[in-house]
Design a protein that fits this description.
about 210 residues, 9 helices
């Protein structure tokens, strides 16, 4: 995510504004996916597991909000240049977020829903290519549940955790764990192809 901040900064956007835009972009995606993941846990694994997932989601979101809006906590968990950056830019970032007009928030939400709708459509097309009897809504819930572990820095491209979650869900639904791993592999290939396209947009210094 920090590559977005670097890209925007090189385009002339202030660091605080670049950080704020990236933060809003990421949190909106994560919030929507966590919601879909919790719904998926209810659908795929039952009320008890869904309730546990809901409790964990509320706890994590509460911790994130507390961490971001508490300078006292930020001082304790950051060191060196990172602490200086956080303290210098933190107030500017929060001020920038507070000044965003309501209409802009509405447009951001609408575009986020459109983007995620197209994103999950890609996943459903991949599943359809594997001849899986899975609906678009089920795909949204399953992929969201598989994407939640990607929030934690425990894997590259979510390889491993995504395979395990999709295998568990597909096995539970009677579609076969191997189908979940196959879909996860196709998703990885799609991410890699998208990443290759992104190389064309990396800022380059012009030669003098």
């Amino acid at each position: 995510e920090f590559s977005k901040i670097i890209f925007l900064s090189k385009a002339g956007v202030a660091v605080s504004e670049s950080f704020a835009v990236t933060l809003i972009d990421r949190l909106s995606d994560v919030g929507f996916m966590i919601l879909c993941a919790v719904l998926g846990m209810y659908v795929f694994f039952g009320r008890v597991t869904g309730s546990i997932g809901l409790g964990v989601a509320v706890l994590l979101l509460g911790m994130l909000i507390l961490l971001w809006f508490s300078d006292r906590i930020l001082l304790r968990v950051t060191r060196g240049k990172l602490r200086d950056l956080v303290m210098m830019e933190g107030m500017a970032i929060r001020a920038y977020i507070r000044d965003i007009p309501g209409a802009t928030w509405g447009l951001t939400l609408a575009l986020t829903l459109v983007y995620l709708g197209l994103y999950f459509l890609q996943m459903w097309i991949l599943a359809y290519g594997l001849r899986l009897p899975i609906s678009y809504v089920q795909t949204t819930m399953a992929i969201s549940a598989a994407a939640v572990p990607a929030i934690l820095p425990i894997s590259v491209f979510n390889v491993g955790p995504r395979d395990a979650v999709l295998a568990a869900i597909f096995s539970r639904m009677g579609w076969g764990a191997e189908s979940g791993v196959a879909l996860s592999t196709l998703i990885l290939m799609l991410f890699l192809v998208n990443g290759l396209f992104g190389l064309f947009f990396i800022p380059r210094n012009s030669s003098s």
